[in-house]
Design goal:
Helix content is about 30%, strand content about 20%. The chain is built from three helices and five strands. Strand 4 (about 80-85) and strand 5 form a beta hairpin. Helix 2 (about 55-75) packs across helix 3 (about 120-130). The longest helix has 21 residues, at about 55-75. It is globular. The termini are far apart.
């Protein structure tokens, strides 16, 4: 299997706004956020399906998802919910999308053709790291 864009980020070959890391997962700011604060939690082991992870790898992944969700609630206390979407469609590498939201309309796909706002991503990433 060829290295995914996420594997390249994990290996330091591509830049990212990292907000969290444990032994089995890394969390980065999504460059095309569904909502401000959109974080992607990525398994360090590249597998196309999260159910292919070992029990320990899955535990590390879900621990990262839970820890990042708590950070998001701290940084975005005015939002009603934190969404969690486990997927691997655009990048065949198990990952979860987490983002704060209030309404069903905010739970939608972003414009992935827009230029990323790296200043805003870095600002939120710093807040999440320190949460």
């Amino acid at each position: 299997m060829q290295d995914s864009v996420f594997t390249k980020i994990i290996m330091g070959e591509l830049p990212a706004h990292k907000v969290y890391e444990n032994d089995g997962a890394i969390a980065i700011m999504d460059i095309h956020p569904i909502q401000p604060g959109h974080v992607v939690v990525i398994t360090k082991k590249q597998v196309p399906h999260f159910e292919d992870l070992s029990p320990l790898e899955y535990q590390q992944f879900t621990k990262a998802v839970q820890d990042v969700a708590k950070k998001l609630r701290t940084v975005f206390p005015d939002k009603r919910k934190i969404a969690v979407q486990i997927e691997g469609l655009q990048v065949e590498h198990a990952h979860a999308n987490l983002f704060p939201f209030d309404t069903h309309e905010q739970y939608q796909s972003p414009n992935d053709q827009a230029e990323p706002n790296h200043d805003e991503l870095a600002r939120i990433a710093e807040k999440l790291k320190n949460a």
